[in-house]
Amino acid sequence: MNRYPKRDDLRAMSGYHSPQVSVPVRLNTNESPIEPPTEFVRDLAAAVGDIRWNRYPDRAARELRSAIAALHQVRPENVFVANGSNEVLQSVLLAYGGAGRTVATFEPTYQLHSHIARIAGSTVVNGNRNGDFTLSEDEVRRVLTDHQPSVTFLCSPNNPTGLAEDPALIASTVATAPGVVVVDEAYAQFSPHSALPLVNDESRVAVSRTFSKTWSMAAARLGYLIGPTWMIEDLDVVALPYHLDALKQVAGITALRYVSHMERGVADVVAERERLLSEMRTMPLTVWPSQANFILFRPDSTGGARSGGARSGGGPAGGAAGEIGRRVWQHLLDNGVLVRDCSSWEGLAGCLRVTVGSAGENDAFLVALRSAVSARD
Ligand SMILES: *Cc1c(COP(=O)(O)O)cnc(C)c1O
């Protein structure tokens, strides 16, 4: 084969893996189980008719940025918009990370923070969360002091563990970080607090948000960042010209007319989440609390977890826990339910993550899970 080698620093890397399997119940990527309102679809179809397809879209996405700014009571100059919040994060890393610079994350957390940082050529340093997945100020201070990162990521609520970061910890991180701090708030609508009040032109903190989860618009690939004016100007330097197509701009503008629909959907998901949590707590599982639309859990290695009739073997720790997690994941899949397998991730041995779905999807999940973790005899 006439392959040409990619960059040396990408040799050991593979792409981002989240299998998209075709199953009846998909609870693996934290999307909303709720369709956008029919009025949204109708308005959008009408707006599509007005797009001038032979012309480039508004490069500055002024109307969309104004609508987002109005939602958060900031100025459009404080809003950067991109193709999903992943592209927002990539833009931040292109502007402030890159070769010779260091990016800090606190694990376990959203995998794409480190992944995109490496692709942008940055060196990644990982701090560690406590056993209960909270984050200590001492650990943050250690990482910031030892490594002087130019970009520090926090994720609140944290994916995949579920809890929002302590607001005091976010504030102290922003106050002491040598570079920029990005608070990834993909699940903000579920959180008791936001870092948005910390954003101003004198600070170095920015908040990223997405339309992919609560807004029921994962298909549109739209995300944004609220940050200081100077940061928005820097991000405009690295963004490709006309990166945000006209269709997406109008989809975002239209979605923002249905805030109350979105908020009702969040309330429904929270009610379902609490139902799932209380059911799951009756099973032989470790279940972590959640302030988001997903739940992290680990089948107990002594609970008789099985799949396909095979009895679980081995002790409670390490590889055995990972193996049981994997087997429960497979059992769920065999029963038509896809969840996220985190069992081989650093710090998450044996753990799975389930997205809160519709009531019917959640019922199917609970039935499949109960059979996966119940002892046979
Ligand atoms: C889902 C998710 C995103 C969303 O990314 P998009 O590119 O906007 O779909 C970003 N950050 C976290 C932590 C997420 O879980």
Number of self-contained structural domains: 2
Bound heterogens, unique = pyridoxal-5'-phosphate
- Portion of residues in beta strands equals 15-25%
Radius of gyration, whole Å: 21 Å
Break the fold down into its secondary structure elements and pairings.
Blueprint: E1 25-27, H1 38-48, H2 62-72, E2 79-82, H3 84-96, E3 102-107, H4 111-119, E4 123-128, H5 137-147, E5 151-155, H6 167-176, E6 180-184, E7 205-210, E8 223-226, H7 229-238, H8 246-255, H9 259-280, E9 285-287, E10 294-299, E11 306-307, E12 310-311, H10 318-334, E13 337-341, E14 352-355, H11 359-373
Helix pairs in contact: 1-8, 2-8, 3-4, 3-7, 5-6, 9-11
The site of pyridoxal-5'-phosphate has 13 residues, from α3.
